[in-house]
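Worked example (supplementary).
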Amino acid sequence: MTTLPLEPVPSPSEETGPSPDPRWQALRGVDRSDRIYQRVLTAFALALPFLILVILGVLLVNALPAVRRFGPGFLWTSTWDPVAEVYGAAPMIFGTLASSFLALLIAVPLALGVAIFLTEFSPRWLRQPVAFLVELLAAIPSVVYGLWGIFVLIPFLRSYVVPPLKAVFGWTPFLQGAFYGNSLLAGGIILAIMIVPYIAAVSREVLLAVPTSQREAALAMGATRWEAVRSAVLPYGRAGLIGAIILGLGRALGETMAVTMVIGNRHDIALSLLQPAYTMAAAIANEFSEATTSMYLSALFEVGLILFVLTVVVNAVARILIWRVARGAAVGSRAL
Amino acid sequence: MLRRTLTAIGIVGALASPLAAQVRLNGAGATFPNIIYQTWILTYNQKFDNVEINYQSIGSGGGIRQFSDKTVDFGGTDAPMSDSAIAAIGGNVLHIPTVLGAVVPTYNLAGVSQPIRFTPDVLADIFLGKITNWSDARIASINPGLTLPRQDIIVVHRSDGSGTSYVWTDYLSKVSPEWLQKVGRGTSVNWPVGLGGRGNEGVTATVKQTPGAIGYVELGYAIINKMAFGVVRNKSGNWITPSLESVTAAAQGAMDDLGPSTDFRVSLTDSPGAQAYAISSFTWLLLRKEYPDAAKARELVKFVWWCLTEGQAKAPNLGYAPLPKEMLPWIEARLKVITGGGRPVWRGRAAN
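After joint prediction of all chains, the assembly is encoded as:
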């Protein structure tokens, strides 16, 4: 998953600051306990990358029979038939990407709105309570989101959201067919709610780190507050904001429980948001325990491998994006 | 300091040694019988504390895998092992039925108070997506006196692999050649239509929340949660309301076809008994024919025999149907096959 920017966001001047104190460097390795301490820490630091390699290795080894049997066609075959032992992951790859991007589409404006409000417009007394409550959303277990989705969100969508939506946009391919409740739409909305706190919290930190001088300069030029935010604050924090969004995306791609409870779990590719879909994480969680044949198990491992690679690619793309944007020494570049 | 630690280890070791003489039996597998297995283990332990039994409900697939890898002493499964899987472990397995379960169609139709009747072909065609409306003439003709609304049928099935799905699809495969050819039987299949719900509770929630939905859940689950379920016509042409009695009747009805030398690796669906509920099934324990450890084999057989005799009384209250008593001698014959350390471990009914 995406890395959290744990260290405080540094100001640009610190970034170009002096390298570690030379006196400290000279003392290195003098004391035996210091050396042991250093080695222990090194071992800790290497343990995690090693773990990732082991996970990748296990996935590769177990997926190998399926990779051999189905070849690259696994990626674009849309049949998933454990009885006939024909497996293809296309519907799940589609469902994972579609639900995650739908979630981003809803969550990004919402989360950025929350972050901008809290840093730029909110009265001081309101800041902490709202920030606390938004972050509290992240603490709710995902199965609770799933239950809430089944018993509150879906009936609400069925009665109040989908009928007007269909009346206006019913002609588009995205709203075809009858709405049964469990659907890509419900999955996307649940995911959106789940990733809002992550994006909002990180974005807020990033915006807080934008120097006041930026805002003052814009306001001094005669900009309105909205113009100041748009032209001076947001561009300054661009890299950090992209990082926040990618963090949300990473979480959306891997989320399992809440999604499987509302998305309909159907191995099918449909453009319509009203139709059921499936995600890779949900399929693995659902089918792993009862996968009776070895090829079935191997196919599920290959799905896991694809999910792993997909998350790595998303993170890599995010890094490149941030790196390219951050060459202008924007806020948050080092944190991410 | 060091000496004190060593002394402590010594004391712990001394305390642990009488425990080491205890026999420990580990099992894993199907989730469906988990409640009764745990109840049996608990009750059995109160009577015989020289044996420690564990059962982990990790799913039938996982149970078969762990049993085959010999990481557990016994397995539990809702779907019998395939011939190839048995061949892979050198045929060293016995399927011992423990209790019976059933799967019932459940639906959400406002204003319909009487149970809806289903024929096998109507059920198959609904799940094949060929009957799509509750007002369909074929449903109406078998439900005289019942006005069904003009409403789309929304099929709900299990999204997780499960023995429940196996029993359901096994039944549909038997009664519908088209289902057999297009879909087949399995713990998860390529469903022609419908939404997937996770677990019995997921299917139930989706059915309850979706007007016009039809799904399938375990009988015990439906009884305990007081859900509406359908009446299904059985092979003899009788309309049978699913109940624990009609499920036991399904096993009785199948006995003629099985014969006393059966290996019990058979499906009970579409049983010929007159009062049999058609969508019934065994759940099995997987035991080895040969155990290297005699004490283990001995205790395991003793425990299993206790489950099949005294333990059966626990079944109805927990939503499981007991095995028909007539079947016991047949199972006894299978248990006698088991050897521990090369010798038979069965010591007669009374000794068990």
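Two points are worth noting when inspecting this output. DSSP finds 13 helices and two strands in chain A. Chain A has one domain: 91-326.
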